[in-house]
Amino acid sequence: MERVNVNILMHNAWQAGILVPAFNVAYLPMLKTIVDTLKEENTFGLVEVSRPDVEKFGAKSFKDVAENFYRYADQYYARLHLDHIPVIDEDGNLVDWERFIREGLEMGYQSVMIDGSRLPLEDNISCTKRVIDMARSRGVPVEAELGAVFGHEKGPLPPYEELFNSKRGFTSVESAEVFVKETDVDWLSVAIGNIHGAISGVAKDQKKIEARLDIEHLKKINDVARRPLVLHGGSGIKIEYVREAIKNGITKINIGTEVRQAYENGMRESNNDTGFACSRVADKVRELIDLFGIRGSIEKIYGRGQG
Questions:
Q1: Beta partners for 88?
Q2: Residue 231 three-state SS
Q3: Rounded distance between C-alpha atoms, residue 76 and residue 146, angstroms
Q4: pTM for the full model?
Q5: Which end of the chain is more exposed for a tag (fewer CB within 10 A), N or C?
Q6: What is the C-alpha to C-alpha distance for residues 199 and 197, in angstroms, rounded to an integer?
Q7: How confident is the model at residue 201, as a pLDDT?
Q8: Would you call 83 a catalytic residue per the annotation?
Q9: Mean pLDDT by 10 residues, the chain (307 residues)
Q10: pLDDT at residue number 154
Q11: Where are the domains of the chain?
Q12: CB contact at 8 A, 194 and 210
């Protein structure tokens, strides 16, 4: 049976109001555990890898992740996403983003993300359209980001409440309307109070900030975007906010910190027993599936007769 394109599955989930979890593979052994657990729980999800996963943790390389995915994953339950390729990174450096995207497509990544959120709107649109031109010829959907999801920066951030109350970095409703009209991007990552977990220094081992979401602001974005919306920095957000977000367009939620720390804590507790650490990851994935209420999501996302 021909495999259903992941973009169709995402749109099915969006229309049905079902959340698709996307788990970051910070350490290579996590990948098989995540895809096996999704299958055991009859739940559809994505596995994804970002530059920090490769450069700051133990994912090794984008190629290693892709090879392990195609070796171990049942693609009925999981698909492979290239996460967060920035035009300008968290340290203000220009990135050879076209090379990363092109190589990811050649490696078999089934969806890709370009992050031009640090650019002026017009330049973000231009870069996103370039990626869409590269990806759609291969049938690969594109995710882009509008607004600033803070947390990966090296320097200190203002207090979270100050960021939230001032709506600093929030996705502009007006910009979102222009962006989707000009790019027709497949999935849009938004900033509505969500924040990334720290990826460097002592802070990366600490409990993440318990973020809130501005649901009223999300509703306005959803009204103009009319496509699957993505929530980065999903670890640690209170579940009541997540549930309201799902009702208002959020279809994909990125989970990095919680599964990464589950693996790292498991390694520390077991004197570097990878099997034990992976069991902690499986426990965390099951816990999140329960929390999001998505166990058994496969049938609703695929629909009858699709495979």
A1: 94
A2: strand
A3: 30
A4: 0.91
A5: N
A6: 6
A7: 41
A8: yes
A9: 87 98 97 98 98 88 97 98 94 94 98 96 98 97 88 60 72 98 98 65 52 93 98 84 96 95 97 98 98 96 68
A10: 58
A11: 6-302
A12: no
What residues have CB less than 8 Å from 77, skipping those under 6 apart?
A: 35, 38, 39, 42, 43, 44, 45, 298
Q: How far apart are CA 209 and CA 257, in angstroms?
A: 11
Cβ-contact 55, 20 below 8 angstroms:
no
Q: Are strands 20-24 and 78-86 parallel, antiparallel or unpaired?
A: unpaired
Cα–Cα dist 30/259, whole Å? 9
d(CA 127, CA 116): 7
Place of tokens 């596995």: 47
Tokens encoding 39: 């299958």
Q: Which residue out of 36, 83, 89, 214 is catalytically annotated?
A: 83
The pLDDT value given to residue 209: 67
pLDDT for 234 equals 76
Q: Which CATH superfamily is domain 6-302 in?
A: Aldolase class I (3.20.20.70)
- The H or E element spanning position 262 is helix 257-269
CA 305 to chain CA mean position, Å: 28
CA distance 16 to 239: 19
CA dihedral 194, 197, 199, 202 (to 10 degrees): 140
pLDDT for position 233? 81
Q: With the C-alpha atoms ordered 280, 238, 6, 256, is the resulting torsion angle positive or negative? A: negative
**Helical axes 97-107 vs 121-136, angle rounded to 10°:** 20
Nearest CA to 32 out of 228, 282, 212 is that of 282
The predicted pLDDT at position 1 comes to 44
| Residue 296, phi-psi category: left (phi > 0), alpha (psi -120 to 50), beta (remainder) | left
**Distance (Å, whole) CA 52 – CA 68:** 18
DSSP string, 25-51: -SBTTHHHHHHHHHHHTT--EEEEE-H
Rg (CA), the chain: 18
Please report, for residues 229, 263, 289, 304, the alpha-carbon distance to residue 294 in angstroms, rounded to integers and kept in the order given. Answer: 17, 22, 6, 18
- Which one-letter amino acid corresponds to residue 178? V
